[in-house]
Amino acid sequence: MSTARRAHPLLQNGAGGDDGDDEREEEEEEDGDEEVEDEAAEDGDDEEEPRLKYQRLGGSVPAILSTDAAASIAVADRMVALGTHNGTLHILDFQGNQVKEIAAHTATINDISFDADGEYIGSCSDDGTVAISSLFTDEKLKFEYHRPMKAIALDPNYSRNYRRFATGGLAGQVLVLTKKTWGGYHKKVLRDGEGPIHSMKWRTDLLAWANDAGVKVHDMKTDRGIAFIERPKGIPRPEFLLPHLVWQDDTVLVIGWGTSVKIAAIRTDLSQGLNGIQRTIVAVGSEKYVDIVGSFQTSYHISGIAPFGDLLVVLAYIPDEDEKEKKFSASVTSRQGTAQRPEIHLVSWKNDEVTTDALPIHGYEHYKAKDYALAHAPFSGSSNAGGQWAAGDEPLYYIVSPKDIVVAKPRDAEDHIAWLLQHDCHEKALAAVEAGQGRTELLDEVGSRYLDHLIIERKYAEAAQRCPKLLRGSPSAWERWVFHFAHLRQLPVLVPYIPTENPQLSDTAYEVALVALTTNPSFHELLLTTVKNWPPALYSASPVISAIEPQLNSSSMTDTLKEALAELYVINSQYEKALSLYAELLKPEVFEFIEKYNLHDSVRDKVVNLMILDSKRTVHLLIQHRDIIPTYEVVDQLLHTDRNCDKRYFLHLYLHALFEIDIHAGKEFHDMQVELYADYEPRMLLPFLRTSQHYRLDKAYEIFAQRELVREQVFVLGRMGNAKEALSTIINKLENIEEAVEFVMDQHDDELWEELIRQCLQKPEMVGMLLEHTVGNLDPLYIVSLVPDGLEIPRLRDRLVKIVTDYRTETSLRNGCNDILKADCVNLLVKYYHEARRGVYMASMNEEVHGNRVDDGSSRASERSSSVRALDIKSRTRCGARCCLCFDPLPIQDISVIVFYCCHAYHLSCLEGGLDLMRSNSNQDSDNGSDDEDGSPSGESRMRCVLCTTAAA
């Protein structure tokens, strides 16, 4: 996958200002040549997001390189070592600040190496020396070889493994030096006679170096060679293009040489290589072997190589066409000053390019491929989930040129978001921030830039829709955008999304929003909805009312705006104004509104609108509050309204309801009411005519005559005293003899009966009907006697038979009823007589306490004593509450009393002799097997009043 080259602006750290101007001039010169190519690239493919970001190393570096030139670099866990052409070793922190300076050599430092702990540093130089120094003590070692030394590699366990290191140079020997126990160093030559040593890297027990023949891997633990990888064919000599070795991990060696890249995997068993490529080069007798798991050719010269997760970072030098043709002949040096910018290529093991970045290195046009170096810092691991590295985990890449050092590192989440914003991918940037990538504060920035972008694109509706998500709970941000939308005259699109709580804005913001909705009829519906939904406490209604009221009589006034104004009046406690608008708009809830705020007096001038809205409820309201709303005002409004409605029907409903409540309330309109009844409800005319006394009979008769209301005419004629004409109308027009008879009965005029008979005799059918309906009123024989001889009366025989039958039936019913009435009277009198003869036993106080009774014969009397005690003894009026035998007062002696319904009372002791006599008489009567006189069974004794029994005897 190929990508278009992009030139990255580098962040300046206080140095290189003049160089920046030079770069801009150079870029302007190249713009003309590259414009067409860039446009073609943009048209062909969308620009891909870079994977790396770049920054010039600042701190002490600009000052160091202002008087010297960088030659080599090495990176440890905690520091960076920079070697210069004058032989000085500068120890820097990761920000470029110098920590220590070591005057290790007198000529160019070609290579630098740290041990695994970062405590020792070794370097080699063209002056033929190798120097090893402790970074935290004064320990220093220096070795002289009298030939330029090009490579050095400290044993990773240098401090724990006898201070062992390896080195090589133009002498062509790979030397391994190990400190002896008793002092001095033991020197061992691993390889000799294959040309100068150009590069050397040590990882765990594996040492790899490159010479003119190729790359060799040696197992330092077993002291055996593992593999030899031949130098790629067709590449320039190493003095022009140096080989670059880097261990990706403990078992993978990456080789970049000329235009060739090879990835070698150190294995201990036969298994297929990575990426499906397997190539094995095994040294004789070796237990380990090497698989070439990746290999490809590039179109550029490799000036450095480093791992990047499962990808590779390649520092590319782009040769001119002349350089390619001359194969780096001796004339190449004469072409200095025309070199291109170096590039960073991020590629896979199959040479699929992910990104390509051109670097504006200071003075790049004067440099050759071997003037650049690439080193990478160790990193925690591959934490690039989702394509982004976590802070602190990302690797660092140092691109070194003689006068410039650029640091490259993977772009983090914030860089990703910034790139998305730069390329107008605001939606993706927002999603990235919400997913937790980057600082929380970025959400405000992303949201603001997103809204700005939408506003510039004039996507106001979309911007408004995004506001709740982007502005979240910030009142100041919301208010700022409310006023910004208002300035753009686009506030109506934002109103539906303005929050009313969490956060709550200032009242001015809400008022501005509502006023903005009053200007255009297309916004009035939204205004009404907003006024109903927003809590009234959020804003003052007065500014909004002031904005609407001038439009009341203009063409821009709509019903929706009127309703919104009514709602605002309610919020502002202007209930009467609100009622006027509700009535004008015919809102059904106006009746509840009237009751809620007690606005009955304000209804007086709104009768017609309310009638149109709901006549039934309006009439009920008017009748219920007729003391506040006079009848004449209601009638006047209904009669003189210019509204398109059935005002006479409304008037009829009102007057009819008023008449049913109070027949005198609207008496001055009864003449009108007669006509209204005739038009809308004729069935109610007769009840009205019978009840009312406040209408003109002649006018009513004219109305009934015009509308041919016969029964009403009859009633009016009767009220006018023209009973005969009324009777004639009933007979001739209604031909209803029953109504005629009823009319005559109501008039109580005997002459009308004669007139009824006279008129009926003119019609034979009427005579028959008259005979049917006069039973109980006229003698049928009298009517028959008046019938002229020879007059044929239809069904006369049947009607006479019916008259006789009805008469006999009526007579029989009357006689039966009389017999039943007489029998009932006798039975009731007999029952009353027997009940009156019974006595009521009233026990004394002592007997009541102990529950004693006189005897069994008086048990029934005792059952009634409780009820009689509540009564006033009637005998007090006759005998002065005295015993009728001894004449002593009843209350004096504490003995029981017997009271009879004949109003006589006796002491129980006085009555005992008479009681025995009564019992003997009862026994004699029982011998005859008969019942007592009162219907009681024989043998049951009854007490009798002595006085009444004696008198009866």
Automatic annotation (TrEMBL):
SMART domains: CLH (SM00299), WD40 (SM00320). InterPro entries: Beta-prop_Vps41, Clathrin_H-chain/VPS_repeat, TPR-like_helical_dom_sf, Vps41, Vps41/Vps8, WD40/YVTN_repeat-like_dom_sf, WD40_repeat_dom_sf, WD40_rpt. Residues 1-50, 921-941 are annotated as: Disordered. WD repeats lie at residues 102-132. It comes from the Eukaryota. Keywords: Coiled coil, Protein transport, Repeat, Transport, WD repeat. Residues 720-747 form a coiled coil. GO terms for biological process: endosomal vesicle fusion; intracellular protein transport. Pfam families: Beta-prop_Vps41 (PF23411), TPR_Vps41 (PF23556), zf-RING_Vps41 (PF23555). GO terms for cellular component: HOPS complex; late endosome. Residues 52-409 form the Vps41 beta-propeller domain. Residues 882-914 form the Vps41 C-terminal RING finger domain. CHCR repeats lie at residues 622-769. Residues 18-49 have a biased composition (Acidic residues). Belongs to the VPS41 family. Required for vacuolar assembly and vacuolar traffic. This is Vacuolar protein sorting-associated protein 41 homolog. It comes from Urochloa decumbens.
